[in-house]
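DM from R.C. (forwarded with permission)

"hey, sorry to bug you on a friday — could you get me a structure for this? deadline for the figure draft is monday and I only need the backbone to look sensible"
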Amino acid sequence: MSVATEAVVWDTVERYFALLQAHADAQDMLADILTPDFRTGFPDGQMWEGPDGLRAFLEARSVFFDERHTIQQMSEPVRGADGRWSCRTRLSFFLRRVTAGDAVSQEFTGLAWHTWVLEPGPSWRVAAQLVDGFADLNDNARALFARPDEGLQT
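My reply, with the result:
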């Protein structure tokens, strides 16, 4: 593995988050950064797969109007037998939403660990983003992720 590969993997994950944070729709995400077989979710819980799953995932998280994901650490990418690359990240996140009748917005913060599967090519793409675990969650984030078998508790 070269520094150039590590840089392109980091860049691919950052491009994914830039689109997610911009609230891009499923069609744009599939055209720009995701593979057609993209999947995301919790390995032992809710998993959103393919274009329909992506639309459902984006709908579930559409309540957030302000968000930031900041990668703090990434493991060395490893090439699998299928030619795809995988790595793990640790990141901090901040999400904000307002629900009807609330005087102030609700903030969701914490740390998250993900496993990523990436498809190499002229423009690398994300094939999977899997949530491995959390730490340092505030009360709102703890409630949001309380039931990984049911997805997001929005």
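R.C.: lifesaver. The chain has a mean pLDDT of 95.
me: no worries. The longest helix spans residues 3-21.
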